Amino acid sequence: MTVRKGKRIPIQEHMAIDVCPGPIRPIRQISAYFPRLSPTSSVSDSLAPGPLGLPSGGGAGGGGLLSPLSPGATGGAGGTLSMMSSMDTSVEIDSGDSDDNTSLGTLAFDLHYEVESSSLHCTVIKAKGLKPMDFNGLADPYVKLHLLPGACKANKLKTKTVRNTLNPVWNETLTYCGITEEDMYRKTLRVSVCDEDKLTHNEFIGETRIALRRVKPNLTKHFNICLEHPPPLPSPTAMSVALRGISCYLREWETEQQRSLEERGRLLLCLQFLPPSTPPEGDEAKKEAKDRAKGGLCVGVRRCAHLAAMDVNGFSDPYVKTYLKPDLKKKSKHKTAVIKKTLNPEFNEEFFYEITFNELTSKTLEVTVWDYDLGKSNDFIGGVSFGCQSQGDALQHWIDCLKNKGQKVERWHTLTNELPGSTAQE
């Protein structure tokens, strides 16, 4: 009990009156006693004079920076709370312990799209100020490219690795083949920088994403961009049940609509109609040259790109077949060699069909791509048909071949999983 003016005071009242700690103040961090800049402020803002002619965040005396909570720091209690709240915000934004505020570095590269060759060239120049990933404070960086949307292994390109540096220089050009103008409008290039580790898995440093529609045809565009963290995946709980139902319905509808024209990769094909000519004489008169002198269709299978993966390892063993239909005697089939374990094979093979121009107008050239499997049936990847009954780019390619006799007409085509009148069986 406490006695006050001859009156006894209960211990509860004594504790409430004399020992009440008052308003709870936040515990200051040591970093709060030093001037720090927020991302939205500048040096001039931090040194701007306050209400008493002092730099903002400073005290009344010379030791204001070391005692921000001193009574003389501001003109009153309101000024003190205002200063405290501003300093709290600065400390929260500038906290160096957060990985989100750690600089990942910058990356410089060039993009160039060639319309004639349907190729996209990415020249990776250099990176600067990368985030250290190894125990020695350095990294072993390399750059990966992905086209989105698309299968990762089908369109992944990779530079060489530069050892023990945070400022690597590559000067390396990576090329995507079979990129159409439609791809340039709807696809995005993901450029990511990773650290290579021989004993453990490679570590992600940062990335940037470029919408290819920003690149003008036949013009080189330079980029020097800060690397960022990958965008977070949307949480299923963030969507309401109704939105999830609508999105699932639209996804299934779109899949059903596109199933008949599903993209399975690209094919670079060369068509040439050779009119009859005089066969060469002498030693150069080979059998093949004599056959071609009679006139016919020359089909050149150049290469494929971004094929669908058919094997467990994420790759395929592709080869190409050509048919000139209708073929009652079944003598028009030609096959290329099998290229093992790749989704971007290069064939460079030509096949010749001896046929007249009038006969060719009623024929259909069917080109299919297959995955070779030992001991079981081969898997159909995709194909494309050329003829007067075709549509789109295939029809235009066929017409240009018939119009320009003797000239090679080379085009990229999108493979589909269904062909008119084809059973897609091997």
How far the N terminus sits from the C terminus, by CA atoms, comes to: 101 Å
Proportion of helical residues: 10-25%
Number of helices: 8
Give me the Rg, rounded.
35 Å
Q: Class by helix and strand content? A: alpha+beta
Largest sheet: 4 strands, antiparallel
Describe this structure in words.
The protein has helices spanning 11-18, 43-46, 77-93, 181-186, 241-258, 287-293, 357-360, 392-403; strands at 2-4, 7-9, 106-114, 119-128, 141-148, 157-158, 169-177, 188-195, 203-211, 220-226, 263-274, 296-305, 318-325, 334-335, 346-354, 364-371, 379-386, 409-416. The longest helix is centred in the middle third of the chain and has 18 residues, at 241-258. Strand 8 and strand 9 (203-211) form a beta hairpin. The termini are far apart. The protein folds into three domains: 46-84, no CATH class; 101-226, Immunoglobulin-like, CATH 2.60.40; 262-416, Sandwich (Immunoglobulin-like), CATH 2.60.40. The protein has a four-stranded antiparallel sheet with strand order 7-4-3-10, with no helix packed on it. Strands 6-5-8-9 form a four-stranded antiparallel sheet. The protein has a four-stranded antiparallel sheet with strand order 15-12-11-18, sandwiched between helices. The radius of gyration is 35 Å and the shape is elongated. With 426 residues, the protein is α+β, with helices and mostly antiparallel strands. The protein contains eight helices and 18 strands.
